[in-house]
TrEMBL record:
Belongs to the class I-like SAM-binding methyltransferase superfamily. TPMT family. PANTHER family: THIOPURINE S-METHYLTRANSFERASE (PTHR10259). This is Thiopurine S-methyltransferase. Its EC number is 2.1.1.67. It holds the Pfam family TPMT. It is found in: Cytoplasm. GO terms for biological process: methylation. The keyword ATP-binding does not apply. InterPro entries: SAM-dependent_MTases_sf, Thiopur_S-MeTfrase_Se/Te_detox, Thiopurine_S-MeTrfase, TPMT. Keywords: Cytoplasm, Methyltransferase, S-adenosyl-L-methionine, Transferase. It is an enzyme of class 2 (transferase).
Length: 213
């Protein structure tokens, strides 16, 4: 996806992908990763998700990455946190107690730039990317985090009925992207009530990814 697509979404407030409540997949299944309180959780393409509030309330530290600086500003406003802002060659970094968010192109991040990560929560990143970008994205996350556990939330639906994002990511693709490095456990497979965007029948799938020994 072109960066201008997402910038336009935030600038025109067309953010139907932004959930007003905590994602049920997070609250039900994140504990299955077995991460202790204080662990640093990476949230890619985080927007201003309310799920960050939940993670912080549960005692986790959050490291986010988001293309839109407008979204990041709104996130900190809603968290009622005054961030320190640092300019870097790849984008600004917003930091406050318990949370650090990198703005700009996620593909510019490195393991050195984000530091140690203990787990990944991917609710809206993999499904936001078209097929051609997903292999590179999955490899990037594994590389910069040293293959840490992940909770990944996806959708499956007939892509002929609706254009993404969010895109349909079937189980077969999850296996191709992650099975060489992770044990895959599908911990949820349920209908999307009312259909996806009210347009077509869909299922929400939650995957727990445990690094292979």
């Amino acid at each position: 996806m072109e960066a201008t697509f997402w910038h336009n979404k935030w600038e025109t407030n067309e953010i139907g992908f932004h959930e007003k409540d905590y994602n049920p997949g997070l609250t039900r299944h994140f504990g299955g990763l077995g991460l202790p309180s204080g662990s640093r959780v990476f949230v890619p393409l985080c927007g201003k998700t309310r799920d960050i509030h939940w993670l912080l309330n549960e005692g986790f530290k959050v490291v986010g990455a988001e293309l839109s600086e407008l979204a990041v500003k709104q996130l900190f406003e809603e968290l009622k946190k005054q961030p320190a802002v640092e300019d870097t060659a790849t984008g600004k970094i917003y930091t406050a107690p318990g949370i650090q968010v990198f703005t700009g192109d996620i593909f510019q991040l490195t393991g050195n730039s984000i530091g140690r990560i203990d787990g990944i929560y991917d609710r809206a990143a993999l499904v936001a990317l078209p097929y051609a970008m997903r292999t590179g994205y999955a490899e990037l996350l594994r590389t910069i985090t040293d293959t840490v556990p992940q909770l990944v939330i996806t959708f499956t639906y007939d892509q002929n009925q609706m254009d993404g994002p969010p895109f349909s990511v079937p189980a077969a693709e999850i296996e191709v992207l992650y099975a060489p490095f992770y044990q895959l456990d599908q911990v949820q497979d349920s209908e999307v009530k009312g259909g996806l965007k009210g347009q077509c029948e869909a299922k929400v799938n939650v995957w727990r990814l445990t690094p292979k020994a």
